[in-house]
Write a sequence for this structure.
């Protein structure tokens, strides 16, 4: 069991799938029915899954692992197991691209990670904004602390809360059958909002790099997200 200072999921994947037009709901139905408990049964956690509010053909989700070696074991068990074998053709038929994957680790041991404690509800409430900041180099603890010092007050002013914050995990991909974006340094933050309007305003401020966020620069990607019916949110 993790201690109070250890993250429950020291390795996280942020996965963005580009789908064939009008296939997102089919993938979500299949995912929620066949790929949640079966992934978790072999040692990973489906943290949350979303519809992209700005792209009807994008599915976004995060899953967590207990480490890089555990990731290799869990992915091997799932993708070599009966659930994936039975439904992989149907899942793959919905997808144009599934290789847009960031391999991440918690930004610092002291960063709040409410996402680790989320539970599935019916229906999940609220919306999310995920932000990807490109970095020139791997960040240190001082950089992360300065980022949060700048980022959290505007987030609070928009009635949002931090769900999690991660930076690039630079270890070699322990499951090369599933590609990840290598050679990049990023910082990823996920925020939760009770009201979609608050999330929309925060996303607009991020895209424009104003509203108290000027020193952070413009993120490479801002995702406005709606949780699926079985998302932990």
């Amino acid at each position: 069991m993790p201690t109070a200072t250890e993250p429950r999921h020291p390795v996280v994947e942020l996965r963005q799938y580009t789908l064939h037009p009008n296939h997102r709901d089919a993938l979500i139905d299949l995912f929620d029915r066949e790929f949640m408990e079966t992934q978790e049964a072999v040692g990973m956690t489906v943290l949350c899954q979303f519809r992209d509010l700005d792209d009807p053909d994008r599915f976004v989700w995060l899953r967590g692992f207990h480490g890089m070696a555990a990731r290799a074991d869990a992915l091997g068990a799932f993708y070599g197991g009966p659930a994936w074998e039975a439904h992989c053709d149907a899942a793959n038929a919905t997808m144009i691209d599934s290789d847009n994957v960031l391999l991440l680790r918690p930004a610092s041991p002291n960063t709040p990670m409410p996402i680790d404690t989320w539970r599935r509800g019916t229906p999940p409430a609220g919306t999310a904004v995920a932000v990807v900041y490109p970095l020139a180099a791997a960040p240190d603890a001082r950089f992360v602390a300065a980022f949060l010092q700048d980022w959290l007050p505007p987030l609070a002013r928009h009635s949002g809360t931090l769900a999690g914050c991660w930076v690039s995990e630079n270890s070699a991909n322990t499951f090369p059958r599933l590609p990840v974006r290598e050679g990049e340094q990023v910082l990823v933050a996920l925020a939760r909002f009770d009201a979609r309007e608050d999330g929309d305003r925060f996303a607009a401020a991020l895209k424009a790099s104003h509203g108290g966020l000027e020193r952070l620069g413009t993120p490479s990607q801002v995702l406005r997200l709606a949780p699926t019916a079985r998302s932990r949110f």
